[in-house]
Amino acid sequence: MVKTKAQQIMADREARSEQEATRAILDIAAEFEPYIIRQRRHFHKHPEPSLEEVRTTSDIAGQLDAMNIPYERPLKTGLVATLRGTAPDAYRADGTPRRRLLMRADIDALPVTERTEEEFASVNEGYMHACGHDCHIAMMLGCLQVLRHMTDDIHGEVRVVFQPSEENGSGAKMMCEAGVCEDVDGAFAMHIWSEVDAGTVSCEPGPRMANTDWFRIDVHGTSCHGAMPQRGADAIMVAAEIVNALQTIVSRDLSPYEPAVVTVGELHGGTARNVIAGSAYLTGTVRTYSDATHEMMPELIRRICTHTAAALGAEAELSDYTIANYKVENEPAASERCRQAVLKVLGAAGEGRYRGTLSGEDFSEYLRRVPGVLAFVGCRNPQVGATFAQHSCYYRIDESVLAKGAAVAAQYAVDFLAEPTQEELDGPLVARIAESNPALADTVRSARAATVGAHHALKDAREARMTAARELRRAHAKSEDEAEDKPKE
């Protein structure tokens, strides 16, 4: 029986170089591209809302069973898979992995009625994978297909979290509370993204997605006959004035260099067309990057709603202000590691550029606990109709990007787990110091890093001096030659 390329790679027990490992990742990802697309279409056809991803969880479990990858179900929906590396140093003598990477794929859909007319369009009326979570499942399953065929290249352990309920902001918190971040050294996630060109991946450092807050304002007026407005205080009019006044937060209270959004999405009030409304309420969302701006927002909203209502003879209160998600901020080292993975797998043409977005993502809950990176996998391609925004009922993607995303994820995992641990970098002396005096150990590490930096700077300075000396000698020799060649008068 002829073995597939992936099977040949799995059977090859020879140690691979870094370049050979990347070649193996690309070969296996290419072989499983039809599988990845097929999985994406299956999950797209059967979307389920947050906390109700029962079939989705079962179908993912079926794929993991077929791969012989063990998993646990810490919550009602979603699951956590474990892929163990078989490199000689993957585990310590006590059985713990030398490094462990958490990789997250969210699995829930949106309450959107699909209008794409794709042959694999949603069969669950009123629900759609309009934010690409079907793609996240498929890419992560593809990543696992790659990694399971090359476990000898995995110097540690991969923990894959198929997370429910990202869209309502609760799933990551639930998974973290269930302990998925315990004994984890780093975190990685991908998000398919309609504002990034297909074939590129953006993973720049710093804030990438915004702090996401929800608010509700209740307005209390005095109802009266619609033909006698002077006898009451119109709660709907007051609410409308509050909507307008809230926009001055961004335009007048914040610096023009500070990204922020205040959006009112609902305004409800009134009971009849000929009655001045005695009460109304509005709800909305706030998006920010800056921690300082994030902290200011509740008081700014409270000030505006209270005083606007008072000026119009009514009362208003900020009855709810909820932090749904904190911002997603890529750690610089993780971002650079991801960038290098993109360059290895996709080449320079695959390095995307994206300013970030004020959309929210609960992957931030993992990043608040461990350093990591969220990568935007571009899917925008007008030639296949992939131009619609996230959450659109017409949302489409360029499916050719899915295997590329899976390969980048696999490369990131291999690279992350191959890096030395802090213990290995420290050596036995600093490791002993860290046990009794962590602060002193940090000081020693900083001093060591400064020494290494100084050595590199001196080396660079010597090389620069030698280069300058060579250039001076060449210039001097050239001027002498020119002087000799010049005819004498």
Structure commentary:
By secondary structure, the chain is α+β, with helices and mostly antiparallel strands. It is 43% helix and 20% strand. The chain has helices at 5-11, 18-31, 33-45, 54-67, 133-148, 171-177, 235-246, 248-253, 291-311, 332-346, 364-367, 401-418, 422-436, 438-485, and strands at residues 71-72, 79-84, 100-106, 157-163, 186-197, 201-202, 206-209, 211-220, 224-225, 260-269, 275-276, 279-288, 315-325, 328-330, 372-380. Strands 1-2-4-3-5-15-6 form a 7-stranded mixed sheet, sandwiched between helices. A 4-stranded antiparallel sheet has the order 10-12-8-13. A hairpin with a 6-residue loop joins strand 1 and strand 2. The longest helix has 48 residues, at 438-485. It is globular, with a radius of gyration of 29 Å. The termini are far apart.
Name its key features.
489 residues
